[in-house]
Amino acid sequence: MGGMIRRLGDLLAAAWLMWGPSRSTPLPWHGACVVAKRELAAYFATPVAYVFIVIFLVLAGALTFTLGGFFARGQADLMPFFSFVPWLFLFLVPALTMRLWAEERRHGTIELLLTLPLPQWQAVAGKFLAAWAFCGIALALTFPLWITVNVLGKPDNGVVLTGYVGCMMIAGAYLAVGAAVSAATKNQVIAFVLAVAICFVFAAAGSPVITEFLSNRLPVLAEVARGLSVADRFGGFTRGVIALRDLVYFGSFIGFWLFVNAVVLDLKKAD
Amino acid sequence: MAALIEIEKLTKRFGSFTAVDEVSFTVDRGEVLGFLGPNGAGKSTTMRMLAGFMPPTAGTARICGADVVENGVEAKRSLGFLPEGAPTYPEMSVTGFLRFTASIRGFSGSERDDRVALAMAQTQLEGVRLQPIETLSKGFKRRVGLAQALLHDPPVLVLDEPTDGLDPNQKHEVRELIQRMAPTKAIVISTHILEEVDAVCTRAIIIARGKVIVDAPPRALEVAGQSLEQVFRRLTLGQEAA
């Protein structure tokens, strides 16, 4: 698997060299790409990747077919699967990000990485992109579900596709939070728990329990909570709608947390 | 022309503790500066600031004219840095790791492979090129770190304890390598091993409690029949007692 990923990376790089613009000056985000490639290969060089993917697939499958009532619903769509993804990612994504900077600190490689000639934001972006691509691989491996609904019925594949886009958005949002938290603490357990807690706040902000509680007492905050909720935005994607404001929301959410990551890293890298 | 390394009143404070206190020096092409001092004297902190890893509290450091804070990427391009403990990614192979640093430095294709091969030849790593770094002995790991610092043939080398953990033969090799490169580069090495200073350095700085207390050629230090070790003990212990 690791070899395959590496070969795929080389293939993409070769394609870029052939068709990309002239390489006399390195691309502005060259460093981020190199870091991302190394990181992605590192996932597959350790058991992290395999454990993550297997657990994700087993849980996603089990929840979809049992609690989700995949067959009993009698509808050819992936709604039961998509409804569990935000909650699965809530635990699995922080498990992926908790080591992101902590590991660099433990091995001392942070000193090496940040004294190579690349701007710090590229190191941050590279790590994030690798983790995001990794989540993409895990999601892509749920393709048997998609085949199943297509065999059993005639699902709207456009809706399925937007659902997957939504899953990637959720993964990106949680990853950005987790990466920023990981930069703030040396302790991986603290990084995990804090990341789960912060992600949970954004996941649950739009839930009826919270919004009803708030609208009874502070109606203004209820609107804010709904607006900030990751889960609410995700809902649109699973119904087949890619709204510009949702994309802007996820884009700025990820951007904000990556910015926090870079700032925190700058402050705490030498600790 | 200005010196390749220029450090002016570099200071680092952690809370009320001053780790590096207004350290100033310059290193010219052809010089090998031995950076000496007891543990905790501020050697590594100074090197980290010079390498652009740690921002200084006050003062400036420039590499080939580029300020390490204002123009960090430019300064880092001219720098080969071996951090303390020679950190490397343990799961990568020696070749994979060196290719990674070469790619970040903007090399690609056959040029990258040539650079990696040359760096491995200089540090005698060919025998282990495909081994994961975590399976290597301490001496090999140190040499992987060294290879990474030499790969792009930088005008400035900053090496934090480059011979720590090497056996006597390997130490000899690394010293010869440093001497071979010395005429074309400005090199700073930190070390605890005083005979190393005699063997390779053209100049020695002794630092204690964050302050430079001596800056002179090693030979000038050995005055009145005192060995370098005696001088070191007298200066650093005297400082501590004060």
Task: Give descriptors for this structure.
heterodimer; A: 271 residues; mainly alpha; 14 helices; globular; B: 242 residues; alpha/beta; four-stranded antiparallel β-sheet; 10 strands; 25% strand
Can you offer a commentary on this structure?
Chain A is mostly helical and 271 residues long. Helix content of chain A is 78%, strand content 0%. Chain A has 14 helices and no strands. In chain A, helix 4 (79-97) packs parallel to helix 9, helix 7 (120-140) packs across helix 14 and helix 9 (157-184) runs parallel beside helix 14 (244-268). The longest helix of chain A has 28 residues, at 157-184. Chain B is an alpha/beta fold and 242 residues long. In chain B, the strands form two sheets. In chain B, strands 6-7-8-3-9-10 form a six-stranded mixed β-sheet, with helices on both faces. Chain B has a four-stranded antiparallel β-sheet with strand order 2-1-4-5. In chain B, strand 7 (156-160), helix 6 (168-181) and strand 8 form a beta-alpha-beta unit. Chain B is globular and about 50 Å long. The N and C termini of chain B lie far apart (40 Å). Chain A binds chain B through residues 17, 23, 26, 30-31, 34-35, 38, 41-42, 45-46, 107-109, 111-112, 114-119, 266, 269-270, and chain B through 48, 51-55, 72-74, 76-77, 79, 81, 83-85, 87-92, 96, 100-101, 103-106, 108-109, 145, 148.
What's the structural blueprint in terms of helices and strands?
The complex is a heterodimer of chains A (271) and B (242).
Chain A: H1 2-19, H2 30-45, H3 48-65, H4 79-97, H5 102-107, H6 109-113, H7 120-140, H8 143-152, H9 157-184, H10 188-204, H11 208-217, H12 219-228, H13 230-238, H14 244-268
Helix pairs in contact in A: 1-2, 2-7, 3-4, 4-9, 4-10, 7-9, 7-14, 9-10, 9-13, 9-14, 11-12
Chain B: E1 5-14, E2 17-27, E3 32-36, H1 43-50, E4 58-63, E5 66-67, H2 72-77, E6 79-82, H3 94-104, H4 109-122, H5 138-150, E7 156-160, H6 168-181, E8 186-190, H7 194-200, E9 203-208, E10 211-216, H8 218-221, H9 228-241
Parallel strand pairs in B: 3-8, 3-9, 6-7, 7-8
Antiparallel strand pairs in B: 1-2, 1-4, 4-5, 9-10
Helix pairs in contact in B: 3-4, 4-5
